[in-house]
Amino acid sequence: MRLTVNNQPVEYRLDPDTPLLWALRDASNLTGTKYGCGTGHCGACIVDVDGVARASCQIPIGSIEGSEVTTIEGLSRERSHPVQLALLAGNVVQCGFCIPGIVMAAQALLRREPNPTDDQIRAGLSNICRCGIYPRLVDAIQRAARAIRGEELIPAGARPGIDADDAAATVPALVPNRD
Predict the structure, then answer these.
(1) CB contact at 8 A, 24 and 54
(2) Which residues in the chain land under pLDDT 50?
(3) Is residue 128 part of a domain?
(4) Alpha carbon distance 164, 44 (integer Å)
(5) Domain co-membership, 112 together with 86
(6) Residue 164 lies in a domain
(7) Using CB atoms within 10 A of its CB, is residue 175 exposed (0-12), middle (13-18) or buried (19+)?
(8) Model's pTM, two decimal places?
(9) Max Cα distance, the chain (Å)
(10) Residue 53 belongs to what H/E stretch?
(11) Is residue 170 part of a domain?
(12) How far is residue 167 from each of residues 60, 106, 154, 175, 176, measured CA to CA in Å?
């Protein structure tokens, strides 16, 4: 099976019934795409196939020969895609397991609908997150949409929280004073 994966031509010499998820993870060593439920319901394995967010655990590679596949690794090598920046800036990421699938689903949604309503975001992102990031997630996707439309700039590395200088001043000494 010949595909284009992250803008690179790839030929998989695997059984055509092999799920795309395992071709990506095992044969291409693209481990950002996660195995979650194996039934296509959790969204951890979402990748972009020909511009559409799809659960890679449910796609036999033989059914998509000639397709273009983008994984989280191919979306932005610098992790500078507006969705990624908005998730970081909104302090959305917790354990991180579901995040690659969420990012891939969100970027496909925003390509299709550049000014989504909150309801469209909730409907378009059916990913399961055990950490419960949903309220912050909707806000972050709205922020990413504004950035994509050129209405907002999200600085790379932007993270809310304690200033590094303030944090350093409150950390107790790790080595006891032996005087």
Answers:
(1) no
(2) 158-159, 162, 164, 167-177
(3) yes
(4) 33
(5) yes
(6) no
(7) exposed
(8) 0.85
(9) 72
(10) strand 52-55
(11) no
(12) 49, 33, 23, 18, 19
Q: How many domains does the chain have?
A: 2
> In terms of residue numbers, what domain contains 29?
2-73
179 domain-assigned: no
Distance CA 55, CA 40 (A): 5
Say if residues 3 and 12 touch (Cβ distance below 8 Å): yes
Q: What angle do CA 74, 77, 80 make, to 5 degrees?
A: 110
SS3 at position 40: coil
Helix or strand (DSSP H, E) at 8:
strand 8-11
* Burial group, residue 1, by CB count within 10 angstroms (0-12, 13-18, 19+): buried
Residue type, 21: L
Same domain, 8 and 30: yes
Task: Identify the domain boundary among 73, 102, 129.
Answer: 73
Dump pLDDT digits (tens) for 32-44.
Answer: 999 999 999 999 9
Helix (H, G, I), strand (E, B) or coil at 70: strand
